[in-house]
Amino acid sequence: MRKKISILGSTGSIGRMVLEILEIHSERFEILALSAGENTSLLIEQIKKFRPSFVSVKKEEDAKFLRKISEELGFKILHGTDGASTVASLEDADIVVSAISGIEGFLPTYSAVKAGKRILLANKESLVMGGAVIKKEMEKSSSFLIPVDSEHNALFQLTGKRDREGIKKYIITASGGPFFKKEIEEIKHASREEALNHPVWKMGKKITIDSATLMNKGFELIEAHWLFSIPPENLDVFIHPQSIVHAIIEQRDGSMIAFLSTPDMRIPIQYALFYPETPDTIISPLGIEKLRNLEFYPVDYEKFPCLSLAIFALKEGGSFPTVLAVANEVAVNQFLRGKIEFFEIYKVIEKVINEHKKCELNSLEEVLMIKEWAERRAIEIVGGGK
């Protein structure tokens, strides 16, 4: 029997790759539902090709437009956060792919967890925003998270059945983004185009900017903390420009074990879809000849101060990661709109973090309350308010 899949973020880079793999293995999987943002033209193509039973879009006006073809193509149309959350918790869904970009992915992911789904997690902000409440809900349901991010998927495979007591350090790598070899003064006033010019990965705009500031790597540290119950002091980041080594575990006996693969997100996606099976690859093998010139560098925190903020939020815990994720999203969006300069992303987040008084988050309502405050305060700071 084919497994039924709901995809949150079907028109994004991860969503498109998921559909590419599912199309190759159509004998194993069936598309039950698609949820997308505002790229309705691509979504319509996906609907016609995969014939889902449910479709959700971000805006109500797009839902009204798609309703005109919904009867002909046989799907129910939904919209907004409620629509995405419905797609995430459909009773018939065997697997939910959480690939909505940014903090909008939190509530649908939470809904999937509450419904006890097997979740392929590609939305870092879900655990950064509300790791404690998601883990709490997982204890009540039969939900199971398989990380899709290359670094966490690597850690998932490296740790597996290994004795965790023997592991001293968990290391994830960062490509360094477009500014690894730039001087601080060059980075401070970098243009939108320069920041979006990632040397290795092709991703959406928001995550590409997060990679340029290394905030993305900070989110990954927080996500790893929640996914694998790793104490903050046992996590580390190194710059690895080749993006071939995705994660390393350092054992207490001094040995190190690394996970290597071609920098292609289809590898962890396919692994997560078929877990615990290992199907034949659709990607060209890495090839040992590509390992001759691997480089690793410590992070320069003066050049990438956003990572320092993320590490602070990780160590402080409580509501700080939520504030971090929300303030970052506001600042990145304002940078993409040309309202602030590149280094002001850090300054906006820092101001919000400094003004925040930590509290513990034990419920969804508390997470949403902190989200509302951080969003409002970040917008005020960007706009010059006090």
Number of helices: 16
Spatial separation of the terminal alpha carbons: 58 Å
Q: Which parts are unreliable, with pLDDT below 50 for 5 consecutive residues or more? A: none
User: Helicity, in percent?
Assistant: 40-55%
- DSSP strand tally: 11
Compute the average pLDDT. 94
User: What is the overall silhouette?
Assistant: globular
Class based on secondary structure composition and strand pairing: alpha/beta
Main beta sheet: strand number and arrangement?
7 strands, parallel
What is the N-to-C succession of helices and strands? EHEHEHEHEHEHEHEHHHHEEEHHHHH
Order the strands across the largest sheet as they lie in space: 4-3-2-1-5-6-7
User: In percent, how much strand structure appears in the residues?
Assistant: 15-25%
What is Rg?
20 Å
Can you tag this structure with a few keywords?
386 residues, alpha/beta, 7-stranded parallel sheet, 4-stranded mixed sheet, 47% helix
What does this structure look like?
- This protein is an alpha/beta fold and 386 residues long.
- The protein contains 16 helices and eleven strands.
- It is 47% helix and 15% strand.
- The relative contact order is 0.11.
- It has a seven-stranded parallel beta sheet, with helices on both faces. The chain has a four-stranded mixed beta sheet with strand order 9-8-10-11, covered by helices on one side.
- α13 (305-316) packs parallel to α15.
Summary of the model, kept short:
With 386 residues, the protein is of the alpha/beta class. It has helices spanning 13-24, 40-50, 60-73, 80-88, 106-114, 124-140, 150-159, 184-188, 192-195, 205-213, 215-228, 266-274, 305-316, 320-336, 344-355, 364-382; strands at 3-8, 29-35, 54-57, 76-79, 95-98, 118-121, 144-147, 167-174, 235-239, 245-251, 256-260. It has a 7-stranded parallel β-sheet with strand order 4-3-2-1-5-6-7, sandwiched between helices.
